[in-house]
Amino acid sequence: MNRAGCLCGKVTWEIDGPFEWMSHCHCSRCRKAHGAAFATYVAGPASGFRMSGDAHVGRGQSTIGFERRFCTQCGSVVPGPPSDGLVFVPAGNFEEDPGVRPLAHIFVASKAPWFEIHDSLLRFDAYPAGIDAAVLPDRPPLDPPGKPRGSCLCGAVTYVIEGAPTGCWNCHCSRCRRGRSAAFASNLFLGGEAVRFTRGENLLASYKVPEAQRFTQVFCRRCGSVMPRFDRDRGFSIVPMGSLDDEPGMHPQAHIFVASMAPWYTIADELPQHAECLSAR
Description:
The protein is mainly β. Helices cover 5% and strands 35% of the residues. The chain has helices spanning 28-34, 174-180, and strands at residues 2-5, 12-15, 20-25, 39-45, 49-52, 57-63, 66-71, 77-78, 86-90, 104-106, 122-123, 149-151, 158-161, 165-171, 185-191, 195-199, 204-208, 216-220, 226-227, 229-231, 236-240, 254-256. It has a five-stranded mixed β-sheet with strand order 9-4-3-10-11. A five-stranded mixed β-sheet has the order 20-21-15-14-22. The longest helix is centred in the first third of the chain and has 7 residues, at 28-34. The mean pLDDT is 94.
């Protein structure tokens, strides 16, 4: 039995193996839903899946006929409905090692421009061979070009970056992994309030981990996508890089909190690694 849950704990689930096909998906829709460089999912039998907290589950339509679910309290991605007897669960939420490892990167043709793949896993431009499903084009940015743009999955919230980045890190702490339902969170830092929302700011929800000094997640109420937030006490903005529509002008500079790294993920690049925090978060 493998247990998992969202950041706030309102939604939890269990799933029994055997597991099938763990992979990293780089499609723009997964990146926006998770606010991360990619989303890692693993398939398990629907007969062995149990979830509690349905009253806190939001349902947003990613594409026609495809529903993405999230916790309405904290914004974490949660498993969607079964398909062909299988449930695809986000690996970032597992409490312990599920005992399975990624086999491939999929939708590499839609990969984020600020992330590079360095491992030797299989790579597919879209779905692996044998999967008969339509490949949809990426949604174009909703704001005019100029400054770096970003948006949520449903397009109700959009923003532009109006300042220069001051730092960029991949965080492997357990809160970031649960909050993004991903292997790690890639965050872009900017001085001051350097993000301007161009639509949908009134649709933003915020969740702060009660026992944390500062850890807060801001997300779209309609689709659950993690959105930028302002840390006014410390004077900077934090942008979840998976929500970006454009090249931000800075790529990740280091991995932090690698002492808490997911057991199923391996860092293959040569960026500096720090066991805990690199600077104040």
